[in-house]
Amino acid sequence: MGQPIFILGEDTERQSGKGAQKNNIAAGKAVGDTVRTTLGPKGMDKMLVDSVGDIVVTNDGVTILDEMEIEHPAAKMMVEVAKTQEEQVGDGTTTAVVIGSELLKKAEDLLDQDIHPTVITRGFNLAAEKALEHLEDIGEEVDFEKNRDLLKKIAMTAITGKSAEKAYRKYAELAVKAIESIMDKSEGEVNIDKDDVKIEKNEGDGISSSKLIEGIIIDKEMVHADMPKKIKDAKIALVNTALEVDETETNAEIQISSPDQLESFLDQEEKMLKKMVEKIVDSGADIVFCQKGIDDIAQHYLAKKGIAAVRRVKSDDMERLARATEAKIVNSLDDLDERDLGEAGSIEEKKEGDKMIYVQDCKSPRSVSLLLTGGTEHVVDEAERSMNDALDCIITALKSGSIVAGGGSVEQELSNRLKKYAQSESGREQLAIRAFAEALEVIPRTLAENTGLDPVDALVEIRSAHEEGKKNHGLDVEKGKVVDMRKAGVIEPLGIKKQAIQSASEAAEMILRIDDVVSAGQLSGGDGGGGPPGGGMPGGGMPPGAMGGL
Question: Which superfamily does CATH assign the domain made up of 17-141+405-513 to?
Answer without folding.
Answer: GroEL-like equatorial domain (1.10.560.10)
